[in-house]
Design a protein that fits this description.
about 250 residues, alpha/beta, eight-stranded mixed beta sheet, 8 helices, elongated
Length: about 250
């Protein structure tokens, strides 16, 4: 299956469900793939934002100086050559973090036309209604009304954002609840395993909500479902017990 086909399949799932699934099929530690809550969706009405990462650093808040937009146009050209949908990962490096504003709907339209479906940044964005209408998913620290001169720095290098290191080409999945970096080691298996996880959760919730069962009976039922859907075996491969499964 091509990477583009995998990304299209992953759009069918909630980000939290994928994070749960990764925890059961891959040895990557959770703190290495889920971003912190300071980065949240400001376009929550849109569906999942899924694509491969294109990274850069940007100073949009430091006073003085002249704009340096040339790297942006260069990266836009690079994005247009990528076969898969792209998520723009912007690490802000200015001197006034609360004043960072990495894009509005104008830049959003240019990015979208080049094949970029959204942005993940530890700065702010503006023109939120315009971004939603593109549609262009925006996951940021919040909304900021304006910016200083835009000075783009490093392109296509690893950046730390939301407490996670993101590298160019990493698969990013984000929705209204948060952002994850999908480990490449489980990417091929993730759509099928996520389908199993969704079925498991549906089954498990039917038992958990019942009021006529004891806690011990519920625990026993959940254990049987973990076995039924194969997550006891996958968990054993990464030295995790079945009690780790989240619902």
């Amino acid at each position: 299956m091509s990477l583009r086909s995998i990304l299209e399949e992953l759009r069918e799932f909630d980000t939290a469900l994928l994070a749960n699934t990764i925890g059961y099929i891959d040895p990557t530690a959770p703190h290495e793939y889920y971003l912190g809550s300071s980065i949240r969706s400001v376009t929550p009405s849109l569906g999942p934002t899924v694509g491969v990462a294109a990274t850069c650093e940007l100073d949009s808040s430091s006073p003085g100086g002249a704009p340096d937009m040339e790297p942006f146009w260069r990266q836009l050209e690079e994005i247009s050559q990528i076969q898969e949908p792209v998520v723009w990962i912007v690490k802000t490096v200015g001197s006034r973090p609360d004043h960072e504003c990495v894009l509005g709907d104008g830049m959003g339209k240019a990015l979208f036309a080049a094949g970029c479906v959204g942005v993940v940044t530890d700065g702010g964005v503006r023109d939120v209604n315009g971004l939603a209408n593109i549609p262009f998913g925006a996951h940021a620290r919040g909304v900021t009304i304006h910016h200083c001169a835009l000075r783009f720095r490093k392109l296509d290098e690893p950046v730390e954002i939301g407490g996670v290191t993101v590298r160019p080409g990493d698969v990013i999945h984000a929705n209204a609840e948060g952002v994850i970096r999908v480990p490449s080691s489980c990417l091929d298996r993730l759509p099928a395993k996520a389908t199993q996880m969704r079925a498991f959760e549906h089954d498990a919730h039917r038992w958990l909500r019942r009021t006529d069962l004891t806690i011990a009976e519920k625990r026993n039922c959940i254990g049987k479902l973990i076995t039924k859907y194969g997550f006891d075996k996958t968990a054993a491969k990464i030295e995790a017990g079945p009690g780790r499964l989240e619902l």
